[in-house]
Amino acid sequence: MELTAEKHSIPLSDGNSIPLMGLGTYGDPRATHKGSGYEAVKVAIEVGYRHFDGALVYFNEHEVGQAIREKIADGTVKREDIFYCGKLWNTFHPPALVRPALEKTLKTLQLDYVDLYIVELPLAFKPGDDFYPRDANGKWLYHETDLCATWEALEACKDAGLVKSLGVSNFNKRQLEMILNKPGLKHRPVSNQVECHPYFTQPKLMEYCQQNDIVIVGYSPLGTSRDESWVNLKCPPLLEDELLVSVAKRYNKTTAQVALRFNLQRGVVVIPKSFNPDRIRQNFEIFDFSLSEDEMKAIERLNKNIRFVELRM
Q: What is the Cα gyration radius of the chain?
């Protein structure tokens, strides 16, 4: 797949397109200060990012929306230049709750529509005000979910003009087939957002998604922080890998830039998270070099089939 600075997007199966490089806006409230999402998105738009990955449960959509609106108002971008991805959280799977959840995101962003809205996880929690419901013993409170019924409610949101494209996240082949084989399917999922990086390359899922015109969007493309509450610390730090270090030196790039470029050349959209202006700029500087076929194969062999992100629920 040939990539240049001029070709920053790839087509989706519904006729829309998705920018290859996005900014993840997830921020742990314990580690990020108020306003960091706003500042990061403004810097990113100035650098050239047009794709922003957010969610109601990140608790900063008001900041992201404000930054987008201000950059539209000052003439830097138009609304149609921006690609915003929002997410349906686990407590909103019942069909009657789907549109209100999306409308809450739209109201918080102060935008008329989102470009992509995805089912964040193929499981449901007990509906209610608590996004992470547990019982008195600390056990998760799950809820019966019918993914096909949830999907039909999402299709109605697309038909109403509230969202341009629909997708999923953390779905395996079986769960994707449930949607794709649903009788009366109106709108196919255009993307599947999953963990994807040189230590977890997802070859089988990638092949299946490519066969079904589903774009893989890779979260944690640089590995993750070393937060033991949700990260598998047995997985060695990706950006210290000897091969990535040597390839980075060859191109006068960082290991992060090599890891991102690797996924882009495989046709994987990447959404590295950062609130650091220098890293936001650095991560975007991946369209001025190309990895050789041998380098791509060598990096593919780094695959350990190990996840950094442990979805313990």
A: 19
Give the whole-angstrom CA distance, residue 123 versus residue 103. 21
Write the DSSP assignment of 82-113 as a string of letters.
-EEEEEE-GGG-SHHHHHHHHHHHHHHHT-S-
Sheet with 22-24, edge to edge strand ranges: 22-24, 51-53, 83-88, 114-119, 163-169, 191-195, 215-219, 269-270
Write phi, then psi, for 257 (nearest 5 degrees). -65, -35
pLDDT 10s per residue in the chain (313 long)? Answer: 444 334 689 999 999 999 999 999 987 665 567 889 999 999 999 999 999 999 999 999 999 999 999 999 999 999 999 999 999 999 999 999 999 999 999 999 999 999 999 999 999 999 999 999 999 999 999 999 899 999 999 999 999 999 999 999 999 999 999 999 999 999 999 999 999 999 999 999 999 999 999 999 999 999 865 556 556 667 788 999 999 999 999 999 999 999 999 999 999 999 999 999 999 999 999 999 999 999 999 999 999 998 888 777 7
Owner of token pair 């609304």: 79
Residues classed as catalytic: 58
User: Strands 114-119 and 163-169, how do they pair?
Assistant: parallel
Please, are residues 83 and 108 in contact by the beta-carbon 8 Å criterion? Answer: no
Round to whole Å and give the CA distance between 91 and 2: 41
